[in-house]
Amino acid sequence: MKRHIGITLILLAAAVTITVLYFKNLNPPGRRTSQIINSIPNTAAFLFEFDNNGSFNDLYDNSTLISSVTNPEKLKELRILHRQLLSNRTLRPFFDAQHIYLSVHPQQQDSLDFLITLSPSKNIAEEINQLKSQPIPGAHVKNVMIGGKPGFTITIDSLQRDFFIINKGNNFYAGSFSKQLVQESAVYKPKSKKPVYALLPDQQASNSLANLYINYQQLQPLLQSFYKDKNPDLLKALQMLPATATLSLNYKRDALMFNGFTAIDNSKAVSYISLFKTLKPANNELKDIFPATTAYSWTYATANVPQFEKLLTGWQQKANVTSEKTALFKKIKAETGVNFEQEFNSLLSNEFAVITTRFQEKLAIIKIKNGSKLLSYINNISTLSADELMGQLNYDRLPLWLLGDAFSSFKRPYFKIIDNYLVLANTPSEINNFYNNYTNRNFLSIGNDYKAFNDILARQCNITFFIQFKNAAYLFKQQLKPAFYKVYQQKYGLSNYYAAAYQLTASDNEFYTNFCMKINEQSTSSPN
Asked: Do the bridges between strand 362-368 and strand 294-301 make them parallel or antiparallel, or are there none, so unpaired?
């Protein structure tokens, strides 16, 4: 009996040992994703994770898909750095198949820089020291202390620049051409051990060529580097969302596609977009009638309109603005006899959009259940044009109170009801422009490029940001700082892309997230 017990204990110990070793190997020291990401300064708006292996490097080198979204000077730096450091004969064995984290950080003087963070398969301080006696061709190495962390300066002759790299401890290394950014990384301490980003499920992560992490609340500092205006309109709705996204890359010959989840920080104030996180999505149909002049747009949709109205009212109450809203609708009722909030909500359908045209005009399209019925109510609170074909609302900020922050640009807009669409604009000419586009079927959606792009979009979602780069170029020329507009115009740059879209679909109090960019067909050849 004792012999059997002894054998059983030995087998149990062996099973435990094997199990521990198995799970340890599932998360080797060089791939401690969550710990590494938490060590990166939280000033990053974007963080790109990829395996240092042939598959991704071939994609990066031989396709304009990724190179077109990278500043050519930064791209040159990254390629030379990869050749001089990661592919160095002495260091390469410790970097092969390891995860590399490339984060983008705003810097002083309206610039951006990259921080590279990685964990090689072993501590490489000794190997880097050897490079001083066995020099890298075209580079020179010397010891340095930055932010109290030991490191090295690697001077790359072809760039005439220094690359700074430090050992942060725990076998984490961080490097950049910006000494200031490396200094920031050296002294950075996360406020919490809680992961900044939710990680992808194991199966999705293992099948991904690369992953993209986005910190929405760092978008504004990033865009401030690009734009003359300190609070640009382009992504304002996302900037207010207290959330992060974790997305995996799916590769197509002519498109970058990422999908994953947006995790909302419920401990922070609710934003307008947050209202949709529990709402059932609806089919996206308004995009079919967007005018051909559309530069970018925000579309909102839900199959549960009454619940949206309830959530919006609750949000406005928390913002302490309901007294102003209530006073306005009481005034309208007293002066016109119309309970306009009640009538409008009863006729509101499942989708509305705000469009910015290439002429910097704002245009809203709201889907209505019965346009003729709404017209009878809205005429009572408006001043009609001489021909009675359009009108202007007589009361301030009605769209804002009825539909929320997406309509903050419309103070006392002009309107026209076309079929079952309520169209709003800040000028009569934009109403007429849309009407002419509508009657002549001059829509963005009729073009073959748009049709090909639309094929890679989700058919149902709650929120879609869309940008058509050719039309947006008219805005970029006026709004971007000259240096960044020059980058946008480069031969292999964002201007090579036809369009991009960012889609959020409610799922378990989060958002399933799709991000896609489709390149122009004539731009799919390599820049190399």
From this structure: unpaired
